Amino acid sequence: AAPASVPVRAQLRNDVDELVMDRALTIAPAEFNAARAADVRVDLPIGRLASGSYLLTLESTLGQTTARRDSRFAIR
Fold first, then answer.
1. What do you get for the CA distance between the two ends of the chain, in Å?
2. How far, CA to CA in Å, does 9 sit from each of 2, 32, 39, 57?
3. What's the Cα-to-Cα distance from 28 to each of 23, 39, 51, 61, 65, rounded to whole Å?
4. Mean pLDDT over all residues of the chain?
5. How do residues 9-28 score in pLDDT, each as one tens digit?
6. What is the pLDDT averaged over residues 32-47?
7. DSSP class per residue in the chain
8. What would the mean pLDDT of 4-8 be, rounded to a whole number?
9. Which residues, at least 6 apart from 37, have a Cβ–Cβ distance to it below 8 Å?
């Protein structure tokens, strides 16, 4: 089937599990390449983040399929 628009949720949590960012994004069908993959770009509020550890979660669900990626980083 042809690529469809895919909703993506980007959440950022600090080291005490507080949600500090929650954004809804959409990947348009034209953004998918021949391998049916697409980049997701999220502007993070780095300048407003306190020092500490963070968890960025990207999650997308289309029909019965869910994909999730987590990435940890630290602000010093």
1. 45
2. 22, 17, 14, 8
3. 16, 11, 34, 14, 17
4. 95
5. 999 999 999 999 999 999 99
6. 93
7. -----EEEEEEEEETT--EEEEEEEEE-GGG--TTS---------GGGPPSEEEEEEEEEEETTEEEEEEEEEEE-
8. 95
9. none
pLDDT classification of 53: cutoffs 50, 70, 90 = very high
CB atoms inside a 10 Å sphere around CB 10:
19
Let me know if 28 is exposed, middle or buried by CB neighbors in 10 A (0-12, 13-18, 19+). exposed
The tokens describing 56, both together, are 């960025």
